[in-house]
Amino acid sequence: MSGFTFISVLFFLLHFPLSSLSINSEGNALHAFRSRLHDPNNVLQSWDPTLVDSCTWFHVTCDTNNHVTRIDLGNSNLSGTLGPELGQLPHLQYLELYKNNINGEIPEELGNLKSLISMDLYDNKLEGKIPESFGRLKSLKFLRLSNNKLTGSIPRELTLLENLKIFDVSNNDLCGMIPVDGNFDSFPEESFENNKFSGPELKGLVPYDFGC
């Protein structure tokens, strides 16, 4: 590396530390997500990619280090799809996208959100399967996917989520067996109603495959 190149790199790092680069990457992820959405009410008007600090955008909350921790876009009349870029928000704790018209499949990349506490995607038009990658969301306490068009079975990986307190997949097109391992034996019947489940597993016997 030449002396000039070294000085240039050093100058860049001093003026744009790695934390800033990380924060800017979160802004890029949010803007990529915004580009997938149709927003007739202009609730995302403040999501301006020319502003480096996405923490100034409406419906986005950040921590003291300017990392994105919340997205609050429930009941915003949004349509479009979710995308893998949402998985690039490692500090996100709350993903609130309920009561919109979002369709398509739930990206596997949402399983990368290791800090996530609550994911509310209910009352949309989501389809396809519940990602097995959700089994990596060890901090997750609330998972509400009701009133969509989800198909397939409940991934067995979800039974490993020890912090999961609320789980609701009612009013979908899911099938197979309802798990009873982990915290699933504490979820009410209403969490599973209006699907095509064959019934709960028989606890104490060899587990059924959840598939259908």
Would you spell out the secondary-structure blueprint of this structure?
Layout lengths: L2 H13 L2 H17 L2 E2 L21 E3 L5 E5 L6 E3 L12 E3 L4 E5 L12 E3 L4 E4 L13 E3 L4 E4 L13 E3 L4 E6 L17 E5 L12
Describe this structure in words.
The chain has 212 residues and is α/β, with parallel strands linked by helices. The chain has helices spanning 3-15, 18-34, and strands at residues 37-38, 60-62, 68-72, 79-81, 94-96, 101-105, 118-120, 125-128, 142-144, 149-152, 166-168, 173-178, 196-200. The strands form 2 sheets. It has a 7-stranded mixed beta sheet, with no helix packed on it. Strand 2 (60-62) and strand 3 form a beta hairpin. The longest helix has 17 residues, at 18-34. Mean pLDDT is 88; it is low at 4-22.
Write down the overall geometry: globular
Overall mean pLDDT score?
A: 88
**What is the radius of gyration computed over CA atoms, rounded to a whole number of angstroms?**
20 Å
**Quaternary arrangement of the chains shown?**
single chain
Largest sheet: 7 strands, mixed
First-last Cα distance: 58 Å
Low-confidence stretches: 4-22
Class derived from helix and strand content: alpha/beta
The amount of helix comes to 10-25%
The beta-strand count equals 13
What percentage of the residues does DSSP assign to strands (E)?
15-25%
Strand numbers in spatial order across the main sheet: 1-4-6-8-10-12-13
Number of helices: 2
Written as H for each helix and E for each strand, in order along the chain, the element string is HHEEEEEEEEEEEEE
Outline of the structure:
This protein is α/β, with parallel strands linked by helices and 212 residues long. The chain has helices at 3-15, 18-34; strands at residues 37-38, 60-62, 68-72, 79-81, 94-96, 101-105, 118-120, 125-128, 142-144, 149-152, 166-168, 173-178, 196-200. This is Leucine-rich repeat-containing N-terminal plant-type domain-containing protein.
